[in-house]
Amino acid sequence: MTRKITVDDFSSEEYKHNPFPIWRQMRDEQPLFYDSNEHRWILTRYTDVMAVLRDHERYSTRTYIERFRPIFGRTLAELDGARHIRERTIVAPAFVGKSLDGYEQFIRRSIERIGEKIFLQNNVDLVKSMTNILPSTVITALLGIPEKDDDFVFDIGNTILAAIGSTPEMIERGASAHRKFAEYLAPIISSRRDAPTTDLISRIVHAQADGQSLTDDEICSFISFLLVAGGPTTDTGIANFWWNLLSDPDQLEACRNDPTRISRAFSESLRRDGPIINEDRMTNCEIELYGITIPKDSIVVICLGSANTDDSVFAEPESFNPDRTDLFMGVERKGGIHENGVSGHMAFGMGSHFCMGYQLARREAEMATSQFLLQAPGVRLTSEVHPEARFFDRFVGKLPVEIGKK
Ligand code: HEM
After folding, report:
1. Burial of 66 (0-12, 13-18, 19+ CB in 10 A)
2. Which DSSP string corresponds to 221-268?
3. Taking all residues of the chain, what is their mean pLDDT, rounded to a whole number?
4. What pTM did the predictor assign?
5. 348, 367, 396: residue to mutate for ligand 1 pocket, most atoms within 8 A of CB
6. CATH code of residue 116
7. 296 within some domain
8. Residue 70 included in any domain
9. Protein residue closest via CA to atom 39 of ligand 1
10. Cβ(349) to ligand 1 under 6 A?
11. Alpha carbons within 13 A on the beta-carbon side of 263
12. Which structural domain, as residue segments, surrounds residue 190?
């Protein structure tokens, strides 16, 4: 018999390199696990994770208040219920549907700008020279920030990111970076208010729901939040995806020969190797689960990584198989699906806080991948690398490759 999972497992080398067996054992034996070090409850089964994400009455995103507010102020991430819906309704249309088509030129231009540097070399680390840079370049381009200011915005984004959940000194540095950014954004916001263009700042400034729009402070907080919500997640989403393809030359070739496969391969990569493996919520009331009472105001962690590899939902869940028939392969759905033996992955979350940038991230990943496969026909990994898990995320830190000339 294997030993029981303990809190120390989450900081173990085994978890870092291969969290799947630990998640599997938790689902089988301790589907509601109490982490006594951090005083939080962890749920690992697909159905439990889905139930929490869909239940914003009993499970609140108040957990984001402490993490984000001291750095860049209040954002929709921390809101529940009607206030959340109101704010989301104002900004969400700028990220989906037709709005997205208008952004393709910015995405293409960002991919080309970065590609110009990469394809001059033969040996590169794709993480450092491509995936780390692309999502931030796309966000600044979409916002309408001039290219010459990219480095300034990247520095701001990195300082804000480093501040999240960090020491008081780092949090103050993050807050000061946000204030500097807000000063920088003020004249841009004001000019877009008077003379809107097609950029994202114009859309956010003029977006309304029930006659209400965001104040300048709210716009600045939202833009800083976008840098952390859309930058590192997409970076890791693409890096983990490319790691999957580069580690499996047959899949790489299949995508190269039939670019329409890229989309399903990306879905499968998000399922098995999604960037965010845990999220948390706070209970609004006492909750009974598995015969245990979780007190009001407790932290409940929902393990997306485990839900996405739950073998009661996905066959051979730990294998990367873009041809699987049990995963919904289309564009993700906010409510998730779980019917006729086909289920959605939860890498973008689920329910009312479902990722707002899911279509943008997908468009970016697919366009960058098809361009990359075209430009680098002989690409191969030059050393073995693997994603590493921390508590909230899981990412491959480098992708050393030989490009292979056209
Ligand atoms: C592969 C890339 C991405 C992944 C894996 C990802 C993942 C997630 C997840 C799991 C959530 C839900 C958080 C929760 O329920 O607590 C979320 C929310 C969010 N994401 Fe993404 N994201 C990605 C890309 C993006 C991009 C490109 C943007 C925009 C530029 C973005 C903007 C947001 C926003 C604004 C929210 C908050 C939505 C709300 O609270 O209503 N994300 N994302």
Report:
1. exposed
2. HHHHHHHHHHHHHHHHHHHHHHHHHHT-HHHHHHHHH-TTHHHHHHHH
3. 93
4. 0.96
5. 348
6. 1.10.630.10
7. yes
8. yes
9. 353
10. yes
11. 9
12. 19-400
Q: Name residue 60's beta-bridge partners.
A: 282
* Greater model confidence, 335 or 271: 271
Q: Is 232 in the pocket of ligand 1 (CB under 6 A)?
A: no
Measured from the CB, is residue 279 less than 6 Å from ligand 1?
yes
Q: Please, what's the b/e burial string for 200-229 (b: 16 or more CB within 10 A of its CB; e: otherwise)?
A: bbbbbbebebeeeebeeebbbbbbbbbbbb
Reported as a single tens digit per residue, the pLDDT across 163-212 is 998 999 999 999 999 999 999 999 999 999 999 998 999 999 998 878 88
Site to substitute for ligand 1 among 356, 367, 395, most atoms within 8 A of C-beta: 356
Does residue 13 lie in a domain region? Answer: no
Q: Residue 234: CB within 6 Å of ligand 1?
A: yes
* Domains in the chain, number: 1
Q: Phi/psi of residue 108, each to 5°?
A: -60, -45
How many angstroms separate the CA atoms of 167 and 78, rounded? 21
Instruction: Read off the amino acid at residue 106.
Output: F
